[in-house]
């Protein structure tokens, strides 16, 4: 799956691998190579990342890696992913090379997993990835999937759910996890869940608690 973190003007697109797939060196390098290509399509051939990070140690020769990924390579890191300027994340997808959307869809569907994900799985992964960016919406999810918003709503309805329901569930799960760390302030958690302010996060929490109480 894909997670995006932003802080201090730097965005990190982190690739996390399913346990069944594993995080073998070749799988990691091929996935980051595909992600690098996707970003080049979106941002132009002259774009360069801040860094490309791998959890595994460096190989004997870096010639192949540098020819594909450039020279800003870091190994033995605590994540697999690509760091870029936060400003690069503001480039509208609809102005990018048409091939970029197909590349993004392939990454989101996790082809390495050996099976096509359902529309619910795809939307859940995109919500998880987009939440920390503050740009998580049905329109953005539809854009990443290469369809319009109505199509997303219709397909989710056919599965007995909706975008808001998935968004609230993922926010709840993420909130529970983040609040489980005692040193996390609510003001730090709010933007990670896509809220523009602590007050917006607090209102959402109250609404969720009220809904839960009404069901009991």
Characterise this structure.
This protein folds into 2 domains: 2-114, no CATH class; 117-216, Orthogonal Bundle (Arc Repressor Mutant, subunit A), CATH 1.10.10.60. 50% of the residues lie in helices and 10% in strands. It contains 9 helices and 5 strands, in the order E-E-H-E-H-E-E-H-H-H-H-H-H-H. Strands 1-2-5-3-4 form a 5-stranded mixed beta sheet. Strand 1 and strand 2 (10-15) form a beta hairpin. 21% of the residues are buried. Residues 93-101 and 108-115 have low confidence and may be disordered.
Descriptive tags:
216 residues; alpha+beta; Arc Repressor Mutant, subunit A; 2 domains; 10% strand
Strand content: 5-15%
Tell me the domain tally: 2
Give the proportion of residues in helices.
40-55%
Principal-axes geometry comes out as globular
Structural class: alpha+beta
What is the topology?
Blueprint: E1 2-7, E2 10-15, H1 25-43, E3 51-53, H2 63-69, E4 73-74, E5 81-85, H3 98-108, H4 119-130, H5 138-145, H6 149-158, H7 163-179, H8 186-192, H9 198-215
Parallel strand pairs: 3-4
Antiparallel strand pairs: 1-2, 2-5, 3-5
